[in-house]
Structure formats: structure tokens, C-alpha cells
Amino acid sequence: MRYKIQRGLVEVTARSPASDTTTKFSKVEGTIDFDPDAPWSAQVEIKVDMRVFDAGDTFKNWKLKGDLEADAHPTATLILARVDDVHEVTAGAFTGAATGQIKWRDHAPFVKIKGKATVDRRSVEARASSLSNGGSMRAV
What is the value of pTM for the model shown? Predict the structure, then answer.
């Protein structure tokens, strides 16, 4: 089944010796194709509007706006490249790992993703996280 993402949140935590900064990107859209009988065939595409964010305070927002250059690069896209491992925990509840590709600003690195999802005929609720490069990303 194909599910349309109607609401979402992407949190990115950047770690540094001075201080960690968690930024929330709240304008998210995309699709999830998921068949409970073949969860390894899942397909996901999530688009994040990089112009709509909150880093926690006015100064961080001002600084990040300049660093992101979001007006020139307004959309980041996460595409699921492959499902590496998936298990049905209980009826309709799955956990797993996957590899995704984040496309933004002429870059397209691959990231490892761990997540869980609850699926029924009407909806899918998914949470995923990735750890890389000293920071973290969490999508809800």
C-alpha cells in the first residue's frame, strides 16, 4: 500500500566541543510504500523543507539560516535505498534497519537507519534514527 506522509518532524543534532545543537524541521512530506507481507520491499521518499526549522533560540536560528543557505537549497530528500533487516515484532508492528540516501546541496551520502513502524490498512506510523559523523538524525 502507498501511504502519504501528512505530518512529520525531522530532528538533527549537531555535536561539537562547544555545544550540541538540535534543530527541528517541521515541514515534511513524501510517501511510504509498505506491504506487511513483504516488508523488505518497502520504499520511502521523504522531502524536508529546509527553510522551516527551529534550533531553539533566535541566535541559533539566525546563524543556521545563513549556514544552511536554505533559500538556495530549499529541499532535502531522503530516499530508502534498501532494507537491510526487518522483523515483525507483533501483528502490524515492525522493527528493522535500512540504508538511505540523503540528497541535498549537490551531495548524496548514504546513511544507516534503524526504525520501527506500526502498519494497518489506513495508516503507518514510523520512527527512525541514524547516527553518523558525530551527530544524529531522528524522523517521526
Answer: 0.86
